[in-house]
Amino acid sequence: MKIFLDTSSIFKLYHQEEESAELENLFKFNNITQIFLSEISKIEFSSALYKKVRTKDISEKQAQITLSLFEDDFKQFHFISTDSLVIEQARFLLTKYGKLGLRTLDSIQLSTCLLLQRHTDLFLTSDHLLKDFMIKEGLKTN
Question: Would you kindly state where each structural domain of the chain is located, as residue ranges?
Fold first, then answer.
């Protein structure tokens, strides 16, 4: 099975949160052959970690260790470049869904999903609004 994980989902594999067990079970009970991530997940992941540091949910040392673990796993992921095609599609998606709450980085995540539509079996996000847009675009979610 080929899957796409947005940052909210991949983060749950490195930091225990609600729904982490559900995601871990997906990996445990399925033959995951490829994991796609948007290139912006590298930045969003770091941002999410340091937000946890600012809110004192984790220490800076824990953030550095977690970030290092994520970076060590880069070879397991297929990062999709945020190229001009992805950006233009994201602009279109903002025109289509902006009034419904689609935000900049989520538009890039969604655009990346659409680029992978024919090559991916499942698209995962823990962001309920982004999931709604994925469904509107005909993407298979859990």
Answer: 2-136
Cβ neighbours around 5 below 10 Å, total: 24
Assigned token pair, 96 = 């289509």
Region class of 78: left (phi > 0), else alpha (psi between -120 and 50), else beta: beta
Note the pLDDT tens digit of each residue in 52-74: 999 999 999 999 999 999 999 99
Model's pTM, two decimal places?
A: 0.94
Counting other chains too, the contacts that 53-62 makes at CB distance below 8 Å and 24 or more residues apart are 58/15
Question: pLDDT for 87-121, tens place per residue?
Answer: 999 999 999 999 999 999 999 999 999 999 999 99
Q: What is the second-level CATH architecture of the domain 2-136?
A: 3-Layer(aba) Sandwich (3.40)
Both tokens of 33, joined, read 């052959």
